[in-house]
Amino acid sequence: MSTNDDHRDLLVAVALGIAEPHEVAGADRLIAENPAYHGELAELRSAAAAMALSVPQIDPPSELKGSIMDAVRAEQPALRRARTPREHGRFAWPSWRQAGAWPALAGGLAAVAIGLLTWNLVTGADDPSRGRSLTVQASAAVPKAQGDARVLPDGTAVVRLSGLPRVPAGTAYELWVIGPKGPVSAGFLGMKANGDLVAMAEQLDGATALAITPERLDNTAAPTSTPIVTVALG
Amino acid sequence: MARRRISTDLGRLSDEDLLALVREGDSAAFEVMYDRHSRVAYSLAFRLVGDRSAAEDLVQDAFLAVWRGSRGYAPGLGSVRNWVLSIVHHRGVDRLRTASAMNRRQEALEQVARVDPVAPDAADEAADRVLAGTVRAELGELPNDQQRVLRLAYFGGFTHHEIAEMLDLPLGTVKSRMRLGLDRLRRGLAGPEFLAS
């Protein structure tokens, strides 16, 4: 049985940015079940971030600002077009995601996609500075699901979903990167304050798709069911 | 002249208000945000990666992520400054984790053994100097064993298990030291200047 100290160990690990994927998922569920922990996590994050002030302060070189502002101004027109008046995708607060090695998934994405509903993203699809938007497919098992996905300019894929049904205690939605050697876990989806589920995948070399399945928190080996959501990377 | 007047007005805005402008693609508002937070961000980056060139890359990545993903900020999770620092920290830890594990551990242990200067830099901005002095004082109040695990976690990116292995301590001891240390730091830094931007 978990104790208050166990709960706070999870929050501390998340606040310090050292939580492993199952710990991130555990903290998300903890907060969902007990909203009081949301405020506690915010305070712990503030305390952790304050440690940055304890190091000797160094002025960044002025050339760095010039370089950053050049990039910002170059992207500004496209960013303004993309953000007016449409709603668009989001970043999550960063959380540690770690991939592992997995046995190959029997079958392929084509089989997975059979019987799926499809929606196309329109959020900034014409804006190269915000990355490439992707087509997300949801299975009939999650008819209320909505979301978006994109590959950012740095190569990271971000998936944001809402309307997924709650999963039983001890389980969470897990993101898989489908590559030539089969599925590789990209971690469990984290829950934002507004209830959206978000996950990021950073190692996409050779990958053809992303897939999401509900999994036990201790399962990081391979998907155990048909994906409820897939995202083609091609 | 007009540009200077606009910049002065932007400088009076809170971080949250600036971020609202950044979300609409306002580069001038972003520039004010950069001026406010780049110093602490760069200092953290340098502490994490230990090299000026790598720290510059890290800060550039982080601020461009802020520019491109400004809607990801959620006020309920802390101040804008802390959000920016969390992006720097997350990306820095990612880079640390790709470094050679053995080298990283040795360097981290040596870094933790050194004590950061208590006296703030002469060039510190006044407000930052007060905050930095407060944080250093609160950290200094922690027992050494709690300081050590907190520094290994935050500046080294090591997990509970990794720290337990490095220090040859039971996992539960590492967790309790980290929990007690961060909780004490939280209570010591409970003022609004740490919770707001």
Describe this structure in words.
- The complex is a heterodimer of chains A (234) and B (197).
- A 6-stranded antiparallel beta sheet of chain A has the order 1-3-11-10-6-7. A 5-stranded antiparallel beta sheet of chain A has the order 2-4-5-9-8.
- Chain A is of the alpha+beta class and 234 residues long.
- Chain A is globular and about 55 Å long.
- With 197 residues, chain B is mainly α.
- Chain B has 11 helices and no strands.
- In chain B, helix 3 runs antiparallel to helix 4 and helix 3 crosses helix 5.
- The longest helix of chain B is centred in the first third of the chain and has 23 residues.
- At the A-B interface, helix 1, helix 3 and helix 4 of A face helix 3, helix 4, helix 5, helix 7 and helix 8 of B.
**Share of residues in helices of chain A:** 25-40%
Total count of strands of chain A = 11
Low-pLDDT stretches of chain A are 84-126
| Helix proportion range of chain B | over 70%
Structural class of chain A: alpha+beta
- Give me the strand/helix succession of chain A: HHHHHEEEEEEEEEEE
Largest sheet: number of strands, sense, barrel closure of chain B: none
> What structural class is derived from the secondary structure elements of chain B?
mainly alpha
Strand order of the largest sheet of chain A: 1-3-11-10-6-7
- Beta-strand content estimate of chain B: under 5%
Q: Biggest interface and which pair forms it?
A: A-B, 65 and 81 residues
* N/C terminus separation of chain B: 29 Å
* Average pLDDT for all residues of chain A: 72
Number of helices of chain B: 11
H/E element sequence of chain B:
HHHHHHHHHHH
Helices and strands in order:
The complex is a heterodimer of chains A (234) and B (197).
Chain A: H1 4-15, H2 21-33, H3 36-50, H4 62-83, H5 109-113, E1 116-119, E2 132-133, E3 136-139, E4 146-151, E5 157-162, E6 171-179, E7 182-188, E8 190-191, E9 197-201, E10 209-216, E11 229-232
Antiparallel strand pairs in A: 1-3, 2-4, 3-11, 4-5, 5-9, 6-7, 6-10, 8-9, 10-11
Chain B: H1 2-11, H2 15-23, H3 27-49, H4 52-68, H5 80-98, H6 101-113, H7 126-141, H8 144-154, H9 160-167, H10 171-188, H11 192-195
Helix pairs in contact in B: 2-3, 3-4, 3-5, 4-5, 8-10, 9-10
